[in-house]
Amino acid sequence: MKKMILKAAACAALATAMVLTGCSSDEGGDSDIISVKGTSASISSLNDSGETRKRGFATIRATEKSAADCTIVMNNAKNNGSSVMGFVFDEHEGKDADGATIYDFYLAGVRYYSGKPQYYLSHFENVKSSELTGSQDSFGKETAIVKGTTTAYADLPDSVMNGDDLTVTVSVTQADTGKYVVTLKNKNLDPVEPVGSVGTIDLKDGKQQGKIGFYAMITKDNELNGEWTLANIKEAAEIVEE
User: Fold this and answer.
1) Alpha-carbon distance 54 to 45, whole Å?
2) Nearest alpha-carbon partner for 70 in 160, 169, 217, 167
3) How far is the C-alpha of 120 from the C-alpha of 138, rounded, in Å?
4) What is the pTM for the complete model shown?
5) How far apart are CA 146 and CA 153, in angstroms?
6) 176: Cβ–Cβ under 8 A, 6 or more apart, which residues?
7) What is the SS3 string spanning the chain?
8) C-alpha angle with apex 198: 197 to 200, nearest 5 degrees?
9) How many Cα atoms occupy the beta-carbon half-sphere of 215 within 13 Å?
């Protein structure tokens, strides 16, 4: 049998319409602190709630994507109390035994901590909606893929810094096997390597695709300001056999 990969025209049109509008109905999670507009998003929020953490989570929900680049610019990163900005990909939603929505996704997060820019990459499963906007220490079931030698975060080179600002491009592509490949680039778009333990993304055979989006965590009494910009988005494709 011959396989042909066809992009669904209707889905592509729907994706264009929703991406350009970026309305709240196209977003998942808490869009109160993350503002999505087109292929970009921004945050400017203070955690004065008294809680240890304040989280935000939003996805572009038009269609599933199989690849994208996300440039994260965290303004004043050296002075925001190690708050986090992240890129979400391969996000899927389901229901638990009580009928509540649960989320699975990959998260590539960055922060500035103890004089160093840092990064982690993890997969999360069975995450509740309340956890995505809550103040818990952790959420769902986490499988760490990239982490530091002694902490959950791997150090990044200083080339990702521009004064007090942190700029990292997270590039998600797919190998011929269908597995995601994640690479990092600095503000000059030069490749950078995290210092720590780097594992592999273990996915089932075949092309993978899911929704993409944005994550933020603001530490107590600190303010987080920054932007996410998406590029090189690859729309989901439909495989038809004939």
Assistant:
1) 9
2) 169
3) 14
4) 0.82
5) 8
6) none
7) CCEEEECCHHHHHHHHHHHHHCCHHHCCCCCCCEEEECCEEEEEEECCCCCCEEEEEEEEEEEEEEEEEEEEEEECHHHCCCCEEEEEEEEEEEECCCCCEEEEEEEEEEEEECCEEEEEEEEEEEEEHHHHCCCCCCCCEEEEEEECCCCCCEECCHHHEECCEEEEEEEEEECCCCCEEEEEECCCCCEECCECEECCCCCCCCCCCEEEEEEEEEECCCEEEEEEEEEEEEECCEEEEC
8) 140
9) 26
pLDDT digits (tens, 9 = 90+) for 81-118: 999 999 999 998 889 888 888 999 999 999 999 999 99
Q: What is the pLDDT of residues 130-188, one digit of tens each?
A: 888 777 777 888 988 888 877 789 999 999 999 999 999 999 988 776 678 899 999 99
Six token digits for residue 242: 């004939």
Confidence of residue 27 (pLDDT cuts 50, 70, 90): very low
Across-strand partners of 234? 67
238 within 8 A of 8, measured Cβ to Cβ:
yes
Distance of CA 211 to the CA centre of its chain: 10
Closest CA to 30 of 14, 53, 52: 53
